[in-house]
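Reopening this ticket.

The earlier resolution said the output was attached, but the attachment link was broken on my side. Pasting everything inline this time so it's all in one place.
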Amino acid sequence: MSNDRIDLYTSIVPNRRQLIIQEMKYYAFIHYGVNTFTNREWGSGKEKESVFNPKKQDAEQWCRAIKDAGMKGVILTCKHHDGFCLWQTKTTEHSIKNSPYKNGKGDVVKEVSDACKKYGLKFGVYLSPWDRNAKCYGTPAYNDFYIQQLTELLTNYGEIFMLWLDGACGAKADGQPVQKYDFERIWDTAVKLQPNIVMSGCAPDVRWIGNESGKTRESEWNVVPKFQYDQQNFAVNCQDSDDMKKFQKRCIDVMLPDMGSREFLSKFDEFMWYPAEVDVSIRTGWFYHPLQSLTLKSLNHLMKIYYNSVGNNSLMLLNIPPDKNGLFAKKDVKRLQEMGFWLKKEEELMISNCETELSDGGFTVTVKFPRQSVDRIHLAEDTTKSQRVERFSIYAEGKKVFSGTVIGFSRIAVFEPVETDTLTVKIEQCRKEPYINKALPVATGAYRVK
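Inline output:
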């Protein structure tokens, strides 16, 4: 491969907003609304506002549990596909102002925003583009309607760290015309009102991983071909082969097993920085369903997802649904506390008093520390210099203990415990020279995924 191509790949770096979210790594989703009370995942848009009536709602309980889990922020479904708004909007009567909650004076968005401030969490909003209640949906007027809702959310609740844009739409099944969303206007409005906002989903900053099960690719690349963000498939201005055309017609590019190898990128001319986000629910459903209490994921399952996302150059977005009382279930809170305890123990056992030496032009990273048993190491590249490492191995006591592919902004390499005073990271394939800015071993004693 020519040096010009490698130079092109390594010229792609994260924007300022992407650097912010890469530091956060792990944050929460809260699916809450009329579906909570109707036991559905997708509401019809015809629900009576009176159905929304939590008796003990406590946003502080949510944020305490999320903080205890070690997460850094919260994204609330301010409006799901049913169109019911959890704030005092001027755009529609299908909102909390016509519910019995606090005699129509409640504002869940404000309550969560305030609770986030109290517990040191960042606050984000989910605003569904698909709206099954709005009469103007399917017409050009809906784009103005949506922008007005977005403007209310991004101007009345302080700093917003993320706008989450869902691509789900069943308008055809409803007999509705499919709305042509003005995504460019949405993105421009968001950044104008909130300069530090990160946009995820059908958006330019963070891409959907392609599943809701917590799985990532073996090699999760940040540098990918230029995307059509709204459709989550590659833009057409590439060197198309017949196969690429088929992929674009199916709009399944986000599902591809390889999105960033040299071989794959060779088919394209334009590229972008587009980190992946793993969105997964703590239970089977996104909204609370009483009969799904037995589907609560085990601690080991959730931590496996954590190591497979945060530990594999991706972001983790974990959903916790409040129940009809407006509370997280006790079992869910306990599970979040267990996750936080696990992560805190790992942080406590991280060896910070180590010496790091670079050799072979930076291709060998030697980490020295007081002799002890270790079983993992946290690695990260300086992504302001792009993502470069393609394959690496870790050695201890003269033996290879781990082999991997990409590192990116966050990699946790876990191996069998070994007593040593030195770990050597050998970068075996790289796009030009590497830039490693973190190599922190963890002493044995932290929990291990089984």
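Reporter confirms the inline version is readable. The longest helix spans residues 330-348. The first strand starts at residue 26 and ends at 30.
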